[in-house]
Specification:
Number of domains: 1
Number of helices: 7
Radius of gyration: 17 Å
Order of helices and strands: EHEHEHEHHEHHE
CATH superfamily: NAD(P)-binding Rossmann-like Domain
Number of strands: 6
Low-confidence stretches: none
Strand content: 15-25%
Mean pLDDT: 91
Shape: globular
CATH architecture: 3-Layer(aba) Sandwich
Largest sheet: 6 strands, parallel
CATH class: Alpha Beta
Distance between the termini: 32 Å
Structural class: alpha/beta
């Protein structure tokens, strides 16, 4: 039997292949590109899993820490956290007491860091922390999980050279044999949805075992 899914992508056009990957993994997926569209989509028909990707419009832009103004920091690091909370509050109202599973998908950069991307790292970790807080406050009806993917999947313009490396290992291949793509990310999202009956607020890095966090 197919799993029904809603994928909400806000300021994250590069996440579009995830919808096709979810379908290939056995889901029937609808997509939304705004909070209003996502809320309307689930008001009458609640999917078995709601996937959410929310980034800032300039999320992939590198900038030295000293170059950030307070205004720019708020727009890039803080506003996407507030926007995510607003979206999740809207979804909660539309869910209206029914059992639901929400899986956030974001770049793993929040847990690993990257040169020139302190605002992006702070934003992603803020969203992940919000996920854990809401898992405690909104359970047991609404269950949460977070899947961290290889950053260039969501941010194709990101300079890969800025990402952490393990130079002592030489050319690096993760223990699982490579860095997973969208198909593995989709399988992880669906697996996290199935695990929601036993767990909530958990984070998984879809990175082939590169970091083995948390």
């Amino acid at each position: 039997m197919s799993t029904t899914a809603l994928l909400c992508m806000i300021d994250a056009p590069a996440a579009a292949p995830l919808a096709a990957a979810l379908d290939a993994a056995g889901a029937v997926t609808r997509c939304a590109t705004s909070a209003a569209e996502a809320v309307a989509a689930i008001r009458d028909t609640l999917p078995e899993v709601i996937g959410v990707v929310m980034l800032a419009a300039d999320a992939g832009t590198a900038r030295p820490l000293v170059a950030w103004s307070a205004h720019d920091w708020m727009a890039s690091a803080d506003t996407p956290i507030f926007d995510l909370l607003a979206l999740l509050n809207g979804l909660r109202d539309a869910i209206d007491g029914r059992a639901a599973t929400i899986v956030l998908i974001g770049p793993e950069i929040g847990q690993t860091g990257a040169v020139g991307h302190v605002a992006l790292s702070a934003m992603v970790e803020g969203q992940r922390g919000l996920m854990k807080t809401l898992a405690r406050q909104w359970g047991p009806a609404i269950r949460f999980a977070w899947a961290g993917v290889w950053p260039p999947l969501l941010l194709p313009d990101l300079d890969v050279a800025a990402l952490p490396e393990q130079p002592e290992l030489g050319p690096y291949v993760p223990p699982a044999g490579g860095r997973p793509g969208w198909s593995e990310a989709a399988e992880t999202v669906l697996a996290l949805a199935r695990l929601a009956r036993a767990s909530t607020g958990q984070s998984v890095l879809v990175d082939g075992g590169e970091w083995m966090l948390p």
